[in-house]
UniProtKB/TrEMBL annotation, chain A:
InterPro entries per UniProt: MaAIMP_sms
Keyword set includes Transmembrane: yes
Superkingdom of the source species: Bacteria
Membrane spanning residue stretches: 6-25
Annotated region (Disordered), positions in chain: 33-55
Keywords: Membrane, Transmembrane, Transmembrane helix
Protein's recorded name: Methionine/alanine import family NSS transporter small subunit
Pfam families: MaAIMP_sms (PF16951)
From TrEMBL, chain B:
InterPro entries, per the entry: Na/ntran_symport, SNS_sf
Keywords: Membrane, Transmembrane, Transmembrane helix, Transport
Record's protein name: Sodium-dependent transporter
Gene Ontology cellular component terms for the protein in this record: membrane
Pfam families assigned: SNF
Location of the protein in the cell: Membrane
Source superkingdom: Bacteria
rRNA-binding listed as a keyword: no
Region named Disordered: 512-546
Transmembrane segments: 24-43, 55-78, 99-127, 157-178, 190-212, 232-257, 269-294, 329-350, 370-393, 399-420, 440-463, 475-498
Compositionally biased spans, kind Low complexity: 527-546
Membrane topology category: Multi-pass membrane protein
Taxonomic classification: Bacteria, Bacillati, Actinomycetota, Actinomycetes, Micrococcales
Signal peptide: none
């Protein structure tokens, strides 16, 4: 392989995979906002919601 | 699942929206959607033909200035307005619902033929074990396997395609019927890691083939002069655009299944960079393998033909597999990867359709999956398992992607950001819930740069298709299958938008309120002092850890 090709191969890997790593680390450091405004709570039951007549 | 004692939202209870089980589930499903056939068979060829190593520059610029910003726009719309594309757009402005249906119908059309390609990959996975294609992979693919006829409308079915195609539909319907968390997310949780491992093994193996270095040399040697060519930049923008699954409802739908208090932009960065990382990996694997082929044939990599698209996968790769020590294993890895990458993308495409119909007609996930799945499967089998399947697929794909999706993106940007001026609201939404904040530059990119670049792509493609036709297929055929596809999508979108909702989606208050400080009572639509809200501390990360 030519020097130029090797440099660009390494550069592609460093920039793109490095970008992925940086994004993952950033997300791990701060997964969610802790200063959200009030409200916006979901009635959350994982997947299948109860049938509608179930009140 | 804790489903008892949860009637906390009052007497007019709507069904709670389905949700991912957490951040990881969403990210994996979104990566599964973005990483598809295009990553494996399109990116390497496009990069090679557009400057080699120098393509990295326009590629990264396109990723940062169009791909990620439009991805965020999709997220913002889906998450803020908590609905499938038609619901979300309708909640922005009633008449915008038809744009949502336009996106749903594009997905419907794409799913019809995408399934066929996955069926081919499944077949070739099986063929790998005994190298069924023999010495003439090209003849095998179009002749023995597809039994390709001239362009036209044929009802002559090809059983070798029909059987795997039906099987793919059955599995897909089963997964979608199980719902977002138990079906789509679970399938992605299995297939995406499996895909990554299988593909990594394949890439590592390819690096040890004779001639691999020559292949990588061909791919990465930079041609800096290419950066002065506008077409190279357009190629980069279109690769990023098609690769990320943006602007046709998928990411709107997926984001709508996140809980309201969820981080959006940073997970979006993970998804976007994962997609590009897989493309780089595919580039390395494909070109190392092509280097081996060139070495075996005693020619330069530049002289090889069939280095992208279906021909790369179903003609060139089988030829390589036949010549390689341990070929059957390599072939199984390659076609297995192709099938898995396609399948996780197919699920996302069909979830768009399913979600749209669920919400409009009050269907359950199971009803939507079975009803839509059976109709789609019949059409898909009728059109794409016949002797003219490949030609129909190629034509429909050209129009659905280059006209349909690009038009959808331009319309979304122009209507939502220019006409309705919702940019500040959507940026506020993203910035309020997310940990990666967007400046005013985001609005400039999605409202000005994206429609300019995509608008140019759209107009130039329309002109090319009108003037030059496509692949030399007859004009009547292109009018029927190509333009006909676009006309069908438009008409179906208008009809579906005009139909009556089973339950109006308009009784909806977006959260967080915008402008901030106003409409505080809207924020308390679900009770914040009692019911489920009180039981969960704000901003807890426990949810995401599952």
């Amino acid at each position: 392989m030519s020097t130029a090709a090797v440099i660009l191969l390494v550069l592609s890997i460093v920039v793109v995979w490095g970008g992925l790593l940086a994004a993952i680390l950033r997300l791990r450091a701060r997964p969610e906002r802790t200063d959200l405004p009030s409200g916006g709570e979901d009635d959350h039951r994982e997947d299948v919601a109860p049938v509608e007549r179930d009140t | 699942m804790a489903t008892t004692g949860t009637a906390g939202t009052g007497p007019t209870t709507q069904k709670p929206r389905e949700e991912w089980t957490g951040q990881v589930g969403f990210i994996i499903a979104a990566i599964g959607s973005a990483v598809g056939l295009g990553n494996i068979w399109r990116f390497p060829g496009v990069a090679y033909e557009n400057g080699g190593g120098a393509f990295l520059v326009p590629y990264l610029v396109a990723l940062l200035t169009a791909g990620i910003p439009i991805l965020f726009l999709d997220y913002a719309i889906g998450h803020r307005f908590r609905g499938s594309a038609p619901t979300a757009f309708r909640r922005i402005r009633t008449w915008l619902e038809s744009l949502g249906w336009f996106q749903v119908m594009i997905c419907f059309v794409i799913a019809l033929y995408y399934t066929a390609v996955i069926a081919w990959a499944v077949s070739f996975f099986v063929f790998s074990f005994d190298l069924r294609w023999g010495d003439d992979p090209a003849g095998f693919f179009t002749g023995d396997y597809l039994q390709l006829a001239d362009p036209g409308v044929s009802l002559e079915f090809v059983p070798s395609v029909l059987v795997p195609l039906v099987a793919v539909w059955v599995v897909t319907i089963a997964v979608l019927a199980a719902g977002v968390a138990r079906g789509v997310q679970r399938a992605n949780m299995v297939f995406l890691p499996l895909l990554v491992v299988a593909f990594l093994v394949l890439v590592v193996r390819s690096l040890f083939l004779e001639g691999a270095a020559e292949g990588l040399n061909a791919l990465f040697t930079p041609d800096w002069a290419a950066l002065g060519d506008a077409n190279v930049w357009i190629a980069a923008y279109s690769q990023i655009f098609f690769s990320l699954s943006i602007a046709f409802g998928i990411m709107i739908t997926y984001a709508s299944y996140r809980k309201r208090r969820a981080n959006l932009t940073t997970p979006g960065l993970v998804v976007a960079f994962s997609n590009s990382s897989f493309e780089i990996l595919a580039g390395i694997g494909v070109f190392a393998t092509l280097g081996f082929l060139a070495h075996e044939q005693g020619v330069g990599v530049g002289e090889l033909e069939g280095i992208s698209g279906p021909i790369l996968s179903f003609v060139t790769f089988p030829a390589i597999v036949s010549q390689m020590p341990g070929g059957p294993f390599f072939g199984a890895l390659f076609f297995g990867s192709l099938a898995m990458a396609g399948f996780t993308s197919l699920l996302s495409i069909l979830q768009v359709v399913s979600a749209g119909f669920q919400e409009k007609f009050g269907w359950s996930p199971r009803q939507a999956s079975v009803r839509l799945g059976v109709v789609s499967a019949v059409i898909s089998v009728a059109l794409f398992s016949t002797t003219t399947g490949l030609i129909a697929l190629d034509t429909a794909d050209q129009w659905a992607n280059n006209i349909g999706i690009v038009a959808s993106a331009v319309l979304m940007s122009v209507l939502v950001l220019w006409v309705l001026r919702r940019g500040p609201e959507l940026r506020y939404h993203l910035n309020t819930v997310s940990t990666f904040r967007l400046g005013a530059w985001w609005q400039v990119l999605v409202a000005v740069l994206a429609p300019l670049v995509l608008g140019y792509m759209l107009v130039s493609r329309v002109v090319t298709l009108l003037v030059d036709g496509y692949e030399g297929y007859p004009g009547w055929y292109l009018a029927l299958v190509g333009w006909g596809t676009v006309a069908f999508v438009v008409v179906a979108a208008l009809v579906l938008a005009a139909m009556r909702w089973r339950r109006s989606p308009d009784d909806f208050v977006p959260w967080p309120p915008f402008p901030p400080g106003e409409a505080v009572q809207g924020a308390g639509r679900t009770p914040s002092a009692g019911g489920s809200a009180a039981r969960r501390p704000a901003g807890t990360a426990g949810e995401e850890a599952r």
